[in-house]
Amino acid sequence: MSRIFSSKKSVFLTILFLFVLSCTSDIFSGSEFTGSKGLNFYFDNNAPPAYVYEESAVPIRIFVENTGASNVVNGVYSLGIEEQYIKVDKKTDTINLKGKSLERPYGDQTQIIVEGKAKSVGSQEGINSVLSFSLCYPYETKANIITCIDSNPSSKEKKVCTVNPQSFSAGQAAPIGVTNIVPRMIIEKNGVRPQYIITIKNLDKGEIISSDYVNYFCTGKSIPTEQQNVIDVEVSLSDEKLVCNKNKLNLKDGSDELFCELQRIIPSVEGSYNSPLTVKLSYGYAQTITKKIRIESKN
Amino acid sequence: MANGTRHTGRGSAWLFILIWLVIFLFDIRIRIRGGIPLHFPFLFVYLLLIFLARVLLLDESERHSSSHYIREFGIISLISFIAPMANSLFQYLPFNELTVAFVALIIAFSPAWAIYLGIVFGGERSRYTRWIGFVLFLFWIVATSLFFFNDIQAIGFNAIYPGVYPPLAMEYVWDVMVDNAGDAWNFVGDQFTFMWDVFWGRIEYAIDPHKAKVDEMNKRKVGVFVEELKPIPTSIFTEGMPVSIEGRIKADVVDNEVTLKIDCKADDKIDGELYPLKESWKVVRLFDERIDCNFPNLELGSHKIKLNVNIENFKTLSYLRGFFLNQNTLFELRRQGKDPLKVYNFFSSDFIAVYTPGPLRVSMDIGSPPVGLDADESRVSLKLDVGLTNIWSGQLKTIKEMFFVMPKGFTVTGISGLQGEGRIIKKVTCLDLPQEDRNLCDDSLEKVYEITGEGLGVLPENLEGKPVVFSLRVEGDAEEILKDQPYTTNFFKTTTIYDYELSEKTQVVVKK
Fold first, then answer.
1. Residue B449 included in any domain
2. Are residues A43 and A123 part of one domain?
3. N or C: which end of chain A has fewer CB within 10 A?
4. Are B150 and B47 in a shared domain?
5. Does A209 contact B at CB distance below 8 Å?
6. CA-based nearest residue to B226, from B153, B296, B294, B287
């Protein structure tokens, strides 16, 4: 009996936990949307097929969808082939895809279709050829985090909210995301000055390049070191811009921290209240996928 | 335990046996799997085992008693050491046709000695235990006599005799040993030279000539093979009777026409009469012919009969995939601790040269992948190492043509490692390649180079006995190589056409 009770109890607690989780998704994501990808792209399972015969058609199809919440304008794709064994009708083009928004629950999707042809492999038994597909695109992360402002921390009155560090594991519908903020209310004169330590992380597997230079990656040009892993950042609290210790982040080790504070002092009479902290990150993102195919000899 | 010295115990004996068996079984496993024979490293391992045995099996006084050590322990250990090496040397000899019984005996001999050593020298010493060694040795001698000579007679003379004739068998063994000891010696020498070059950092000569894999060619058995060479009807002929041998020649070629010229000789001086008699044989695709060779008047005694096949215009193709990446990107990936191969979904094995089957192995190496290119530099200097190794037992007579097909963006500026004077490599076009390779080449995507006659003239004498390695000095145009891509992979190819001489031997006896 006790076992049944305990089992019912655990089911109830699980449902309750999930309910609470769904109601408070913001505290895990920090945005209207979650996810850690910008453009998601992959080769069609059968195009190119895993095996093709020499001197026969090699259809290539790549699905690209914008799973993030930012629009991609003038992104560049580049199809890499081993020209000595495959020829294709086109290798590079620009790409524009709208991201998801409250009005559009799904971002744009497209297919890139390329006609290819396998060349002769001669008398060899066949060759494994590698196709690569790279996408380079400018992107933005907009993290809207509800944060607590307590203008009178020493007051014993009942507060609307409490000032606590927040972590976000689910991303903000972009490959770069805010993963942690540590707020501090610094008491000054008749009020407080809010300060934040914000941690930004590369949540996907791509390369970060400044948005002005990101297309260089897909065109094989040299990217200056100072343009790699660079992100432009803007932080505001209720539309009021915060002053940060840097306006460019460097994610060379995969993550970076930022210190920001409000310029003015919030008077203590305002009490405690929730306020949106907006972190806007602008960057370029580049990623490559590959697929191996076997070109078989007809002999 | 005399004089208070520590006596090695049963535990150390078992430890020795265990270590020995692990090494031995590992050695056997590699041989059975048919990988590159590891004679050279194993030679050291077995030698080390002798010293290990000394430490583990002998007590303090025995270790310092030189007479005892040399007389009993040393000799026994040496025999134990020679057995597995003999087994490996047999790979060079035609003994792979030996019966399972004899091969099993050879393989069992070494661990049997190791166990014997452990029993006799480890733990309790007893004069009786030496009898175990004696019985074991006696057993091996008897078994060898029964199996070995019988097998050799059957292999050497293609006949099964009712009795064992050790002098006849040993005459054959001696001939084979003399002929093949050179091969074994050269192999060990090559290994040593290679290790020496690596050790002294002579990187330009340290390209591993074995670092290439063979193209399976859709299971086609490409090459020229002399099979079933044997005297008919038996290997023993009576005086005045014509001596006759028969062989089967099988061949398949890559894609070009190959010419075979066949002759046979007794004792390297008496020409035989061939049937069918043809000046040359053309091989376009699968070739399978039986050849008879007759000697009307051979003198009394044992004769070595050699069938020579001169292969003209045999072709070996090889290719190597190169992986090129913008240097800044490569630097950034490495700085972040990422493996570029993993990032772009490659394996190291994707960048090993592949060559078509045949007597010549053509290996290539353009540096550890990926090779970083500075896109801001107009020209990047690279080096393509090429290794040529004669991997069959015959003789490479001459290399007639050698072409290099470089992907677009790469220009050959010279060769290092070949001693020829003047220009030994020149730029040609796809049209200069052999007819059958032209449709695989595209002048708009590739550049073709040919080693000139002067350059080729240097190769054959170098190729006798050891691999030849030379380097193509290459200039790369980073912009053209990366051609609007984050990285590129492309192929370096070679075509080599050469003449090769293959010989197979058999033995006959002419009696009164």
1. yes
2. yes
3. N
4. yes
5. no
6. B287
Considering the domain architecture, whether residues B254 and B328 belong to the same structural domain is answered as: no
Which residues between 120 and 179 in chain B have a beta carbon less than 8 angstroms from any beta carbon of chain A?
none
pLDDT at B209: 47
A207 touches chain B (CB under 8 A): yes
Percent of chain B scoring above 90 in pLDDT: 14
Q: Indicate whether A120 and A171 sit together in one domain.
A: no
How far apart CA A197 and CA B395 sit, in angstroms, is 75
Assign B314 to helix, strand or coil.
strand
Q: How far is CA B75 from CA A105, A139, B117, in A?
A: 85, 78, 11
Q: Please report which confidence band the pLDDT of residue B396 belongs to, taking 50, 70 and 90 as the band edges.
A: confident
Of the candidates A82, A125, A224, which has its C-beta nearest B491's C-beta?
A: A82
Nearest to B253 by CA among A123, A280, A131, A83: A123
Put simply, the answer to whether B218 touches A83 (Cβ < 8 Å) is: no
- A125/B216 Cβ within 8 A: yes
Beta strands in B182-235 (DSSP E): 212-214, 223-231
**Which residue is listed with tokens 């707020």?**
A183
Same domain? B381 vs B405: yes
Q: How many independent structural domains does chain B possess?
A: 3
Give the confidence band of B199 by pLDDT, cuts at 50, 70, 90: low
B379 or A196: whose pLDDT is higher?
Answer: A196
In DSSP notation, B435-479 reads GGGGGG--TTTEEEEEE-HHHHHHHHHHHTTS-EEEEEEEEE-HH
* B442 to A84: CB separation less than 8 angstroms, yes or no: yes
**Closest-CA distance of chain A to residue B378, Å:** 12
CA distance B425 to chain A (A): 23
- How close A32 gets to chain B, by Cα (Å)? 31
Instruction: Determine whether the interchain pair A220/B490 forms a contact, defined as Cβ–Cβ distance below 8 Å.
Output: no
Question: Which range (A62-66, A229-233, B35-39, B392-396) has the least confidence?
Answer: B35-39
Q: Does B479 touch chain A (CB under 8 A)?
A: yes
Tell me: do B303 and B320 sit in the same domain. Answer: no
Q: Kind and range of the H or E element at B490?
A: strand B487-511
Q: DSSP letters along A103-166, please?
A: S-SS--EEEEEEEEEE---TTSSEEEEEEEEEEEEEEEEEEEEEEEEES-TT--S--S-----E
Peptide bond into B357 cis (omega under 30): no
Domain that holds residue A236: 140-284
Residue with the two structure tokens 């010293």:
B51
A124 → chain B, closest CA residue: B217
Residue B316: per-residue pLDDT: 93
| Residue B171 within a domain | no
- The string over B270-282, giving b where at least 16 C-beta atoms fall within 10 Å of a residue's C-beta and e elsewhere, is bebeeeeeeeebe
* Residue type, position B212, single letter: A
| Distance from the B470 Cα atom to the nearest Cα atom in chain A, whole angstroms | 25
In this structure, are B51 and B105 located in the same domain? Answer: yes
Residues B25 and B109 grouped into a single domain? yes
What 3-state class would DSSP assign to B87? helix
Of B166, B200, B225, which residue sits at a domain end? B166
